Fold these 2 entries.
Entry 1:
Amino acid sequence: MLEIIDVTHTYGAYQALGGVKLTLAEGELVCVVGPSGCGKSTLLRCVAGLVQPTGGRILLDGVPVSQTPDNLAVVFQDYSRSLFPWMSAAANVALPLRRKGMDRASRRTAAMEALEQVGLAGAAGKYPWEMSGGMQQRVSIARALAYRPSLLLMDEPFGSVDAQTREDLEDLVLRVCAHHGMTIMLVTHDIDESVYLGDRVVVLSRSPGTVAGDLQVSLPSPRDQIATREHETFVRLRAEVGRLIRGNQLSPQET
Amino acid sequence: MLEIIDVTHTYGAYQALGGVKLTLAEGELVCVVGPSGCGKSTLLRCVAGLVQPTGGRILLDGVPVSQTPDNLAVVFQDYSRSLFPWMSAAANVALPLRRKGMDRASRRTAAMEALEQVGLAGAAGKYPWEMSGGMQQRVSIARALAYRPSLLLMDEPFGSVDAQTREDLEDLVLRVCAHHGMTIMLVTHDIDESVYLGDRVVVLSRSPGTVAGDLQVSLPSPRDQIATREHETFVRLRAEVGRLIRGNQLSPQET
Amino acid sequence: MRTRSTRVLRGAVGVAGLLVAAELALRAGHVTLLPLVSTVLLRAAELTVDGEFLSAAASTLASWAAGLALTVAVGIPIGLLLGAMPKVEAVVRPLIEFLRPIPSVALIPLAILVFTEQLHLRAAIVIYAACWPVLINTIYGLKDVDPVAKETLRSFGFGPLAVLVRVSLPSAAPFIATGIRLAASVAIVLAVSVELVAGGTDGVGVYIIKAGGGGRTDLMIAATVLTGLFGLLVNVAFVAVERKVFRWRHAR
Amino acid sequence: SGSDTGSTSTNANGPEKTTLKVGILPIPDAAPIQIAIDKGFFKEEGLSIDLSIEEGAAKALPKVAGGTLDVTLANYVSAFSIQQAGLGKFKIIADSFQAAPDTFVIMVAKDSPIKTPADLAGKKIAVNTLNNIGTLAVTQTLKVSGVTVNPSQFVPMPLPDMAAALKNGTVDAAWMAEPFISINQKQGAQKLVDSMAGPTADFPVAGWGVSEDFYNKNPKTVAAFQRAVAKAQQLASTDRKVVEAALPKYSKIDAATAAVITLGKYPTTLNEGRLQRVADLMTELGYLKGHFDVKPLIAAPSTAG
Amino acid sequence: MYELWFSGPVTHVFLTDDALDTFPPSLGRLLVGWVAASLAGIVLGLAIGRSRVLSDFLDPVIDFGRAVPPPMLVPIFFALFRIGTPTQIATIVFGVIWPVLINAVDGAATVDRQHLETAKVFGLSRPQVIGRIIVPSAMPKIVAGLRLSLSLALIMMVISELVGSTSGIGYRLMTAQQNFLITDVWGCIVLLGVLGYLLNSSFLLVENRILGWHSRARQNA
Ligand SMILES: Nc1ncnc2c1ncn2[C@@H]1O[C@H](COP(=O)(O)OP(=O)(O)OP(=O)(O)O)[C@@H](O)[C@H]1O
Ligand SMILES: Nc1ncnc2c1ncn2[C@@H]1O[C@H](COP(=O)(O)OP(=O)(O)OP(=O)(O)O)[C@@H](O)[C@H]1O
Ligand SMILES: [Mg+2]
Ligand SMILES: [Mg+2]
């Protein structure tokens, strides 16, 4: 569904991406991990059509991405700046739904439902600046989920929530993904999380980022917070990813 | 050194803190964990004198905190907004050092040193908006560390960096803390991290936040990323903290 | 990216388009009483080498520069003060709002009685009119500063003054600059208007009075056009400086 | 006040103040001062003159009172009004300009239905200033034609704008002075009636004013100024060419226009009786409250030569 | 001044006939001119602020127009429209549009990039981006411009009434000046101050409604 072919990006003279090659199949959830500043956000922004790659091509369903593709949602890393301070949480979530031609009432219902899913049923009327960091982040997740995109890009979406909420949100994303057949590209710093969530884990190398490893996660679905994490494959993959990030070296399997 | 006595805070009609009681000894590193939106950031802001508690008292070295105390540094949860976009990373780090009466050259040296410690030696001349999320977060950590405060408040300081960098930063904080005898209050969502770093872990209950648990971490110093995390006490405490957050119930030990 | 030359070219096309449209409208005979655009432009070109006009322009320039400099020197500190202290602002707001809508034109006859020095009179009137954009934009600019940025510096133990100077001022600076840019044009307008109303030994406004006395509408409009052109140049200069200084703002 | 700034002569017989700031209007009324400068009459008296272009007597006289100007050209109607309003005490030290036939005219558009002054009843008439010489002359002129003008018929606007106002029908008639009469005539506007005829014939228009304070402190300067101006008045009243040559130097009336415009008279003496006539008409039409004696304002040259 | 305006009968809320004749037409023109200028300024400003091409083409024209003294344009408007209400409104519009326009350009040009990217990603339509992102973002600045221009409108109202008018506050001010009625001149000035104060106070009420989120978001601590 999504083909990223030798994509490079340079900011002025600084090369952030050094030729990334990556393919996502329809309905796949791919986790992207890599050291800080290696170009993960840049890659996501390229896919979202927010910046033009300086080299390479990105194809979505075979068509080159030149503008922002249709039916896309993004959870930005800088979530607090991506919420609109003049709108309540519910309004922030409901806004993109206008694009779907939904009427006022159903927009409202969908927004409330999404907020409830992220545990913010009571905060629908709050403004972003009346919310804690974790709450803001959850609003921006709710906004993306309520939109039901076919391609969902998430940049460190659970960085500001507590462990319990994080697990709940992880499972929520897995559920929604499976149920609506979304394709998801999720950037995370948590190795456990990447293995737990992903159908595949892609490791980017130090800047300029290239694909240093691409691991298939063959864990049984549906995943379970306790059982999956105790699974032998999980433990092995986790170590593998860790080694890839640390050493930037390829695992024996792939050489 | 720091006494938080029955502190409450209400935003308008909404009660965020419901009477927090907490004492920090000189040189202690206390980690605060708790569910999203429970009032951790609010508590930190009260201690920093940025908001006035609506009830209770905060004493620093026996003196009530009415304004921002001297010799304090804060790493804000919303790090990207706390960096000044019109200044380079080095200038951002160097700015607070003016308060210390340092001259230009030594401010510069100190800033460069701190940036190097957080792995940003090469990015000193970059502006915040030219940096990735994790890099911005590290700049704000460098700024706080370079300041050498006697009380350091950190709100989710490692949320946006990769696992490897995170460990490095954790150890950096431990080293600096030990070396300069800082008192640190650190909010985190990572239970492992709270146990790894803290001399004590304080668990706040769901909003309005109160202290639901206060665990002494009797792990040997200096901590070590591998050995400590394998330590039996570590495993026990981690489970304990997890249980406290999840259930908000007190552990058998404390009842 | 677009280059400076395309910008200049497009700007020139915009101005030329306006002028051509005006010329055609005039030639079509809808407004026979105004001199043709081409006539005015010719006169304007002549004025740029006319010694009398140039000395008039120099005099106007002096009162403009003096007025604007004082406006900035007075307006920004007061704006900072009021913006930083909402309580003080609430107290003096009625006074400001009372003074603001009083036309300087109405004050000129009274100012004539107070100022005997021509430059003082002109600068005073310029300041009176031009300080409001600086003041209001400074106050609004300060209100727009990110509280997290302010708290950051406060948490490091900086006092209100340091926060004002190191965070609020730089962060509001772009908006204040816009206010100054507005004020610069207001100052031009007023520097000429005060001459028009109060007369004097020289100045563009005085030149226009003379042209009016002789029924030379073409010269009046030509002088006006040159005034506008000066405003254009001033603005280009301001924008260029703003672009350089506030690069962080557009890149963000 | 600041009237004694500027260079002061040490010569006991010379003028107290040698550099004078003089307010003028860029209209034919002020021609003699330019002549006096050009011919060196001021220099002969030890005076040097700084000309300041004024927008009107109403602004110039307060400047004289305040000391920004030493002397100004002022129309008598303004001068008397200001004096009575108590905004300053003035002395008229020389006469300058007096109406002649066709120097102040009520004009109408080319194809205007208005053919006689009587047609102006209830019509809108443009004047450059309200409650001044224009309204005074128009009111008096129409009174002769049996029309009583209501003050609200007057529409104030600058002289250069009147052509447009006539053309697009904003006003029905306009009271104009030279050079606008000539200019508008060229564009097709018509003279309806001379406003300075009959009761207003030879109407005194403008003279030179100083503040009483200045007058008292600088008698020799005033006398020197009077002598210089008198010589110029003499020339102006006898030789039109001199005036034509002077006009383009202080105004934007070009030589071609200067050659064709109708000029008023440049009186050589300051006559109390003539000025009293202005005051009396002002009183009659309600511009002044009660009788106004011009005598205290008059400061004619001590020796008539 | 008191006698001039406020000694009228109780039934007219103490305003004299004179005042009743003078105020409504003046204020009517002021409001029409201000609203027209504000709308034009906001629309044009947003367009220019968001479109480089448009800003390239129009910036010089605008900067030129800004520096032209409005009194000098009265004769031109006058030749174009006819003296009276149209010319006066044109003068007011021309005089007060600049602060709104410039601030709107500034506000629209500096919308937080992250906001725009969010809107883009969710595929908001052009009108939605303008109406729901750009306008609210630029609103604090636009409002500062509106506030500046409101008092300017009062000033331009006076200026527009100085030429070719036979009624209005500006006309009263001018006749008072030309008749050397100094107390009346002061009366007019005080009246303008009071009117300006009242207009501004009403404006602040509206501003509080529109920008409530902004001041509360910016207060925080
Ligand atoms: N400015 C404000 N106005 C109103 N309510 C606020 C404001 N700031 C915070 N709150 C509320 O206070 C509560 C505590 O917020 P706080 O930011 O302290 O939470 P937190 O523990 O830091 O959460 P997180 O882990 O998500 O950052 C939240 O429910 C939030 O909605
Ligand atoms: N606007 C910009 N201008 C210049 N350089 C930039 C800009 N944005 C990012 N960079 C640089 O590009 C590199 C990659 O940035 P990016 O934000 O993609 O990293 P990241 O992988 O998302 O890191 P993190 O995990 O810390 O968020 C960084 O080194 C950063 O300094
Ligand atoms: Mg990133
Ligand atoms: Mg928080």
Entry 2:
Amino acid sequence: MEFSVTLPRTAEFTVEASASLLNFSMVGLTGHSGAGKTSLFRALAGLEKNAQVHSRFKNGALNRARVGLVFQEPLLLPHLTVEGNLQLATRYKASHRTISQDDDAIIAGCHCQHLLQRSPNGLSGGEAQRVALARALLNQPELLLLDEPLSAVDQSTRTSIMQWLRTVADQGLPMMLISHDISDLWLHCQSLLLMQDGQIVCHDVPAEVIHTMYKQSAGGRVQQVAVLAGPVVRAENSNAFTGFKCEGQLVYTTRCQDSENNRATLSVAAHSVVIDKNGQVPTSLDNQFMCEVQEIGPPIDEEVTVSLQRGSARLYATISVAAVKRLNLQNGDTVRASFPA
Amino acid sequence: MEFSVTLPRTAEFTVEASASLLNFSMVGLTGHSGAGKTSLFRALAGLEKNAQVHSRFKNGALNRARVGLVFQEPLLLPHLTVEGNLQLATRYKASHRTISQDDDAIIAGCHCQHLLQRSPNGLSGGEAQRVALARALLNQPELLLLDEPLSAVDQSTRTSIMQWLRTVADQGLPMMLISHDISDLWLHCQSLLLMQDGQIVCHDVPAEVIHTMYKQSAGGRVQQVAVLAGPVVRAENSNAFTGFKCEGQLVYTTRCQDSENNRATLSVAAHSVVIDKNGQVPTSLDNQFMCEVQEIGPPIDEEVTVSLQRGSARLYATISVAAVKRLNLQNGDTVRASFPA
Amino acid sequence: MPVSGDVTAIWLTLKLAALTSSILLIIATPVAWWLSCWQHRLKSVVLSVIALPLILPPTVLGFYLLLAFAPDSWPGQWWQSVFGTSLAFSFSGLVIGSVIYSLPFAVQPLYTGFTQLDRRYLEVGKTFNMGKFARFSRIVVPLCQSYFFVALGLTFAHTIGEFGVVLMIGGNIPGETQVIAIALYDHVEMGQYQQAHWLAAGLMLFSFLLLCILYGANRGGGRQWNFR
Amino acid sequence: MPVSGDVTAIWLTLKLAALTSSILLIIATPVAWWLSCWQHRLKSVVLSVIALPLILPPTVLGFYLLLAFAPDSWPGQWWQSVFGTSLAFSFSGLVIGSVIYSLPFAVQPLYTGFTQLDRRYLEVGKTFNMGKFARFSRIVVPLCQSYFFVALGLTFAHTIGEFGVVLMIGGNIPGETQVIAIALYDHVEMGQYQQAHWLAAGLMLFSFLLLCILYGANRGGGRQWNFR
Amino acid sequence: KETPLRLAVAANFAPVLDKIAGDFSARTGIKTSVTVASSGTLFAQIRNGAPFDIFLSADARRPQQLVSENLADSDSLIAYATGKLAYVSDNPAISDVDTLIASLNHNPGRLAIAHPELAPYGRAALQFLQKSGLEDEFAGRLVRGKNVLQAWQYFETGNVSQALVAASLVANKHEGKVVIPSFLHDEITQKLVIPGSSERHHDAMRFICYLVSESVQRSLKSAGYEPVQTPGVCR
Ligand SMILES: Nc1ncnc2c1ncn2[C@@H]1O[C@H](COP(=O)(O)OP(=O)(O)OP(=O)(O)O)[C@@H](O)[C@H]1O
Ligand SMILES: Nc1ncnc2c1ncn2[C@@H]1O[C@H](COP(=O)(O)OP(=O)(O)OP(=O)(O)O)[C@@H](O)[C@H]1O
Ligand code: MOO
Ligand SMILES: [Mg+2]
Ligand SMILES: [Mg+2]
């Protein structure tokens, strides 16, 4: 898929974005609030009359394809029940199915089974979002644009829906996802587009794009999250841990096994990483990862975020200024990063 | 503040929540989608006629106080500009200011300065949320309920707003925050309420509540928090840390200074404690506390909670079964417990 | 007690009211929709033109319609040449007159309803690949249900009650153009008060029941605040 | 060319239309608001009762009003004892008649507007500690602006054009109850078609301009979709 | 299906005509339908093609005008009744013209009449007031109904205590009624005509002959009209 969109918004602000995405199943789109993400999606879905869209998707332009869009607000039709909303989407679905699962499986995948008889007015924010997602999927689009579809859903439900969405995407329904949630973007997208002031300034693998973002937002105290990933090695010690290889080292994780591809991932929050220098001493933390200090961020609130790297794997550790002094940390030092599984 | 709320929603679902919050500036509220968080807020704000609310806030019931609420949707008045929306809130503000900052500072704190002349219809999702937040603050409430106020705002902006909100809260406007974002809850709240099926099932420091949430799929268990306390020694290293003596050892804390009695306290969540045996090696964790293993609890979910003691001070450390094996932990062992300040 | 002529008049009235309301809905819906989408300085002018039939006293409006319907005026001639009958003093003429006179009652509520509709619901329909007509019938119509009911109620009631225009262009011909409003008027005019009271009471009761059914059917549409 | 009596009639008509519209807004607003909040099986009954003045032909309605205004009926008596004047053939009587007859045009659009209003905007006002009245005037009124304009436009136009009721209860007294609709009717009846044309054209033009101004003022209210 | 003979009648004569038309139908088998409106409305309608077979106006002017505009058959233009003006009031003491004029001089109340320019009875009423020197007295007190019927309704509903109306309307009233002598106003000649558009000239003529026949004309007297003498149209 390729697109190039021009959409004037206000006198000062115009969306001018283009990208070409090859063989993608899930691409992330992120950027500051007001960067133009929603506007871009609306233009791609053919909802903006003022937009000039040049695009190629499959064998034609995007406007000849069936482009689904989950809006930033759920926009459930208030005169129908949840079931009615879903049925409306089903009624107008494409004759050619892009999702192989049957409708009940889609509804269950979005955690909506128990909501069918309810009226949209009585749903909670997260419930409404899930119904809106199910509705878009039941329409069997050829391309699905997701505009912060799960922002009001709690983390565990969100993780489960995102994982399921990934399988749907992988089975042949390409998706683009707007999200502000770093771990969703990191875990579930093949590549990320970073939008700034209406333009796509960066298109790369998630780790790189997120690193770019972190560098840009120096000055804020952002909880940085890194994700390590690699091929599963064996079920180690017990069935609670999965071991995987990452840059030649063994890392354990308790969640996020992608059993189909036999790969495992682990998100590591910067605050949970402990650094030491002469570390052969075993501690109660289950993961030990040798890496180099790449950069020591500026102190904010007496804390600094240290960027660590080994090969293509990145980690962040947020530690106190005092700790930097105590450990005499320097760029290029080899350190042990310990963190929970 | 204390409250006890009963609010029937559907035939099967009733919110029955009570809690007592002492001297809080920012309390988090989290829980599954549909758990009843929004319903609870609406009841506390006096918007639900069917709700029975018993409450105490300052010197009266909650309904005699000015309770601000940032709704889950921005609900900006479409017939006014952004500025008009803000002015409306200002016009009806309390004569007694609860926010010491002036209105421009509030608008800047919510990153809304550049939006004043815009119409609500043309705002992006995140922009609208920020305006809604500013609007609620300008009204100078005595208690502010925030229902996922920044869910559509990108991380770096969100962090900067949350930090600023913290200072506002600390200066005398207590807030309750619904969020699904773990790091916001962890970083900015003093304590968290966890809601499940309409009830508040857990009220604890963030680390504990979040850990409980993580664990919930595998069945319930009680988490321990330890509190270390002692006389303040001196402002150490920087003004961010306060040092205090506990069982002859120096412990640092960033919060909870009781300056009147010249005593300081530190809550230590069992999950944040790292144990090692031959520990003279400095790590990035700011506190090191030598103590003895008193008891190693039964393994639940491949984790055990180890009770540690030194004199009258107690600590708990929740570590994996694998770590116990690796460290060869035994009752009576002397270990080093490391944990954040 | 109503006399036998009244029964014919009742039947005629119902036919007229039903026809007028249906035709008006069919005309007013696209007009109101188009107006709600149209952004132009002249919009308030068009809106005012639509309200104009209200300004003229019904008899006077009827008089001008009569002039237009006369066989020597061009609309009258055209009708004559196409349908072979004269428009004035015919049931068709009544229908046309009522439609013109009640037009504002149908267009105005629908227009307001359409402008207040959140267009993003239509965009949702568009992303579902729904056609224009499907979007209108499955999204716009149910969301604007209340406005349709108001338009229907006002035009229906107004057509039943209106008589100035009808008297003028219909000529009060029993069985053809003597609707119940005119029959009632005749009773009052002729001093047959007893009959007038009966007829008025019956008319009110009947229309009241019809309206109750109409407004009752709109129950569901009463509280459709655009929640999410 | 309009004769001098017409000028008085024009003035009287404007006074009547302005007074009627204002009184109707004052009456209809609370009634419609109350109806929109009220949840009861009988609601459609009340709505139907409000629509009833439309059902009766104006002359017949006027006839019944005449019965009510008579000095020996109790409303007439009451008025006489309080204000010392008779209601029939007075300007006050006209106003009352017009208000009753145009009530549905004011209540129905407002009622629909109020039911369609997203009540959460009011809750926002409540969390700002705004009083009931402030919430109404600063939130409900601007959000429902279009409905107020429709109500105003319909009642205003209808009062200008209505003559059946007015003719009946007014007694056609120049300078007191001879409104322009009646003057126009008189011209037509007398066969003074030339004068009727002039007056009709003037009336239409003038009302048209007024309506243009009215609907033009609602420009801002045209596109208030409840976006966020 | 046979269309009935369509009679368009001015409001004041309608109740009487209703009965006469019924009798006529019973006698001849010709169905009739009666359309009631003010003379002015009927006139406007006929000019614009209304399908009436006979137009019974309340005055002579309008049928005359139809004839002069070639819209009606001049042969059929005849008078069918002469109207009488009557005064009615709440006060049973007023029983003749002298007491009437005396009391009108003192009675300051409102007086209902038909609109002088719309209805012949209205004009007659105004002429009566002028001739008895009461015009100025009542200048601001006249309540004008669009036709005599409305003036009568004002009286009957109690909103005015006195009215000048057609004698036909008050034929059954015996107290407080004064029939105004015809020399106090111009004669109210009510004429009829067959509009040119009528296709039932023959039946219409039959009806007219019945209406002006002596027996029917005699019965008009009790209904509050003066009979007319018609030169031999129907021989
Ligand atoms: N209909 C509109 N009219 C005018 N300006 C608009 C309109 N919609 C959006 N904008 C402006 O265009 C910019 C981009 O908006 P957009 O909704 O695309 O942002 P976004 O990237 O989706 O932000 P968020 O993450 O907050 O949802 C914003 O500054 C917004 O104010
Ligand atoms: N007005 C209502 N009528 C009926 N049921 C309602 C209503 N509002 C909420 N509910 C139901 O009550 C439950 C709690 O809703 P609530 O909005 O409080 O959830 P929440 O915790 O805020 O969820 P989320 O995180 O998704 O916003 C949900 O199951 C919801 O469907
Ligand atoms: O129309 Mo009338 O009968 O002149 O009063
Ligand atoms: Mg957006
Ligand atoms: Mg909620």
